Amino acid sequence: MTDFRPFAERLLWARSEAGLTQKDLSEKSGISLPQIVRYEAGRSKPRLGGALKLARVLKMDAYDLMPELRKTTHEIEIEFSSDEAQYLDTAAAGLGITTEELVRKLTMVGLRERSKDPEMRKMIEAESPGLLDRIDALDEDGDQDQKHQR
């Protein structure tokens, strides 16, 4: 059995500092009481979504609660044709994000779509929920614009 005591100790300390009972934390976070008990007993730990819910209720940074969530930055260089770059820039602007963020999210979506590991798929979906729907909607808008230009 995996031991998650360091997380359990941080959670217990944070909950105590906030003056909350396990039941309070459960109700405010939307995480079941039995699951909170498992977390504090060191028998389980949350994924990103659960950690964010707990951190919000405890009024703390999720990274302080679960330092292992910290992201690592990797610099990569990707070459695009001018048409591809223009498409990515337009798509990113339509989504209200940077082109770099769009490429990162598309990479995660690609990983999710190709991943056979259910845990990996859930982690990536937690990172970029609804992204495919937004990109599909943007593509449909682009198709409409092209029809009007003809």
From TrEMBL:
Region named Disordered: 115-150
Basic and acidic residues bias (residue ranges): 115-125
Domain HTH cro/C1-type: 14-65
Gene3D superfamilies (UniProt xref): lambda repressor-like DNA-binding domains (1.10.260.40)
Single GO molecular function: DNA binding
One Pfam family cited in the UniProt record for this chain: HTH_3
Protein name: HTH cro/C1-type domain-containing protein
Protein's organism: Pseudomonas fluorescens NCIMB 11764
